[in-house]
Write a structure and sequence with these properties.
This protein is α/β, with parallel strands linked by helices. Bound molecules: flavin-adenine dinucleotide.
Length: about 400
């Protein structure tokens, strides 16, 4: 059996990039269909990022999908750094006039899906064998299987929003993309624990034993990370060992208490920086993790995905409405400017905060001196703050 359908934009992937793009296109009156290879339950439970930049929150509000975010998210006015037995705070609002919001990525995804489906949006989960065809021509297609049926979706454009391991980027012929890559010599072991956070803000800890991050997802749930070896095995980390190591690396002063509780989720995330350029091949446009990934230290992955599609939606709308190709031509260059700013910030935060085996006394002291400077100089802390709360999205 085979079914054929047509739309203006075929979106592959129902992560933050694909879903936000779909909402932006719908608002502009452009037809689109989203296909996703995992189940709805899986994508709505996938615990990943949790820090939303100021421009991301503004866009979600603008799209009318932020009612629950506004009720349940936590506004963070700053961030703390712990090193050399001290804690230093950078006040984002004082430095930039802006704050960040803490709200789990899976909650953002749930809100976007609920609103998309409630208004009759087309979204197909659990599709297999997704293949893109004819992207160098004027009428590309996507074929996939769903429920034992072969589907063929014709479109004017394909948006590759299928993450780092998706099929869109690899479908671009070898030699058309320039790849830039850094693999870091460590990974993050992350847990979610049923333990009310002790502090109102994140604490980034640079410790001789390695990096640790104290963060939270709600007033009841703490999100904690430990720097571990890149090939670390999760089974080697009992609950007791995780809490013990967090206790050693996080602050020990009287003002901080590490509250423990049942661990409800755990995983190891490799640390990598990656950029594929250009973010377009013919009528296939890459957005979000499909084109680039950052180490999570700067809390940027989700935000960068949203920034990409905010540009892509305008470019597609202009072309489909008026035939003006300028936005499509400039899409990759415009996005990559912000991508590289965020790449630098994420790499810099990662370099400043982690323990590197090859560091000798000189390198270690230089690293701590940088942290000291960044957290005490008004100019340097403003630079960190304006990157952290999010530089404005590019406009066409
Ligand atoms: C394990 C992990 C942990 C992370 N933790 C953090 C964190 O703690 N802090 C932080 O700031 N950032 C974190 N990130 C980064 C952040 O979550 C991503 O940058 C963000 O999800 C990017 O959104 P996206 O829509 O581009 O990609 P994704 O969220 O990856 O969405 C892509 C979607 O495409 C679907 N898909 C894949 N292949 C196909 C296919 N062939 N056909 C159809 N659909 C397909 C996927 O199932 C997925 O739903 C993490 C990422 C990962 C992978």
């Amino acid at each position: 059996m085979e079914s054929t359908a047509a739309t203006e934009v075929a979106i592959i992937g129902a992560g933050p990039a694909g879903l936000v793009l779909a909402h932006l296109l719908r608002r502009a009156g452009i037809g689109c269909v989203i296909i996703e290879n995992r189940s709805r339950d899986h994508v709505e439970r996938r615990v990943r990022a949790g820090v939303l930049e100021h421009p991301t929150v503004a866009l979600l509000r603008d799209l009318g999908v932020a009612a629950r975010l506004d009720r349940e998210s936590m506004t963070h006015r700053g961030v703390e750094f712990a090193f050399r037995g001290e804690r230093r705070r950078i006040d984002f609002v004082e430095r930039t006039g802006k704050a960040i919001s803490v709200y789990g990525q899976q909650e953002v995804v749930k809100d976007l899906i609920a609103s998309w489906l409630a208004d009759g949006g087309a979204l197909f989960f659990e599709v297999d064998d997704v293949v893109v065809h004819g992207v160098e021509g004027a009428r590309p297609t996507v074929t996939y299987r769903a429920g034992g049926v072969e589907h063929r979706l014709e479109a004017a454009f394909i948006a590759g929003c299928d993450g780092f391991h998706g099929i869109c980027r690899p479908s671009i012929p070898a030699g058309r993309l320039t790849l830039a890559d850094r693999v870091y010599p460590f990974a993050w072991l992350g847990i979610l624990a049923e333990a009310p956070p002790t502090t109102d803000e994140l604490i980034y800890a640079n410790h001789d034993r390695g990096f640790a991050l104290y963060s939270m997802r709600s007033p009841q749930i703490t999100r904690l990370y430990l720097q571990v070896a890149p090939d670390e095995q999760l089974e080697r980390w009992s609950d007791d060992r995780i809490w013990d190591e967090l206790g050693r690396r996080l602050p020990t002063d009287a003002g901080f208490e590490l509250r423990t509780g049942p661990i409800i989720e755990r995983g190891i995330t490799p640390m990598r920086s990656f950029v594929a350029a250009p973010m377009r091949h013919g009528r296939l446009f890459l957005a979000g993790d499909a084109a680039h990934i950052v180490p999570p230290t700067g809390a940027k992955g989700l935000n960068l995905a949203v920034a990409d599609v905010s540009v892509l939606a305008v470019a597609l709308e202009r072309f489909l409405r008026t035939g003006d190709e300028d936005g499509l031509v400039r899409y990759s260059e415009l996005c990559l400017r912000r991508v590289w700013r965020v790449q630098h910030f994420s790499w810099w935060m990662t370099s400043m905060l982690h323990r590197f085996d090859e560091h000798d006394t000189f390198a270690r002291e230089v690293q701590l001196s940088e942290l000291d400077y960044v957290t005490s100089s008004e100019a340097a802390s403003t630079a960190l703050a304006e990157n952290y709360v999010g530089l404005p999205f590019a406009t066409l």
